[in-house]
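pasting for ref
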Amino acid sequence: MDFPELEYPKIELETDDLKVILTLKKDYSKIKDLEERKKEFITDIKEFIEEFTTNPEFEELMDYY
């Protein structure tokens, strides 16, 4: 039985220094309170950054660029 691949929402963010495409795998809409939804998203972003910066790929990226 074949299952269609899930499509996750994508958000493109750009500043003068960075361009990031976020793919949201978590359904934040399940959190009904908007302020709580924002807090949850911010917490997840912070955790992602923390995890990324402790990863060897981060060191490689910084060494290269």
